[in-house]
Amino acid sequence: MKTLLGKKIGMTQIFAEDGTVVPVTVVEAGPETVLQVKTVETDGYNAVQVGFEDQKPQRVNKPMTGHFEKAGVTPKKYVAEFRVEEGEAYELGQEITVADFEEGMKLDVVGTSKGKGTQGNIKRHGHHRGPMTHGSKHKRLAGALAAGTYPSRVFKGNKAPGRMGRDTVTVQNVVLVKVIADRNLMMIKGAIPGKKGGLVKITAAVKGQK
Predict the structure, then answer these.
(1) 134 backbone φψ class: left, alpha, beta (φ>0; ψ -120 to 50)
(2) Are 49 and 34 in contact (CB under 8 A)?
(3) pLDDT tens sequence for the chain (210 residues)
(4) d(C-alpha 118, C-alpha 76), whole Å
(5) 169 vs 194: CA distance, rounded Å
(6) Whether the Cβ atoms of residue 96 and residue 34 lie closer than 8 Å to each other
(7) How many Cβ atoms from other residues are within 10 Å of residue 107's Cβ?
(8) What are phi and psi of 101, to 5 degrees?
C-alpha cells in the first residue's frame, strides 16, 4: 500500500546534482500503524485502517481506547482507512514508513487548503473592479446579479462574496525529490495544499495518469 499520512512542515529549497535550485515542501510522513485489516469475507471489501501520531490517552473515548488496545498500539490522533487489493498482506500493529517510497516517483497529495474567511468577489473569484474616478460608487462591489424582468430572481451558483478556502484539494503527479528515512521526512517538489502542521495524505500516483 503506497499511502501515508503526514504533517506539512513547510517549504525550503535544495540543489540538484546539476546545480539547479529545486523548491520543495517538507512533510513528516508516518510512521503509521495498522489498526484494523478489513477483508471481503469479514467486511465486504478489502481495506486497511491506520493510525498516525500519538495521542494522550485521556483525550480518547472508551470505544476508541478499546479499538487501540485490540490492535496493541498506543492511542493515535488521526485514524484513516485506505482501500487495498489484498488486506491479508497486512497485520495488526504493523508500521508503514517512508521506506516504502522511492526518490523520483510521482505522488498524489491531498490536503485542506488554508481558510481565508469571508472574502469579496474580487479576491474570491478574480473579478475586475469598477471605475475609481468620477464619483463611482462601484469600486469593489459585485456587479448585477439578477436576470432582468424575467425571471426576476437571482440564479443559483452566481459568483458572489462568501467563505473562501478550507477546501479539500488534490495535487497530482508531484515528484518525490528526496527521502530522509531516519527522520521520516519526504521532500516533495513544489507546493502542496494546507498550512504548516496540516494533515496531508500522500499516495503513489497511478501509472498513466495525466
Answers:
(1) left
(2) yes
(3) 588 999 999 999 999 888 899 999 999 998 999 999 998 888 888 899 999 999 999 999 999 999 999 888 999 999 999 988 865 678 888 898 998 899 999 999 999 999 999 999 999 999 999 899 999 888 998 888 877 788 888 888 889 899 999 999 999 999 999 999 999 999 999 999 999 999 999 999 876 454
(4) 33
(5) 9
(6) yes
(7) 23
(8) -110, 145
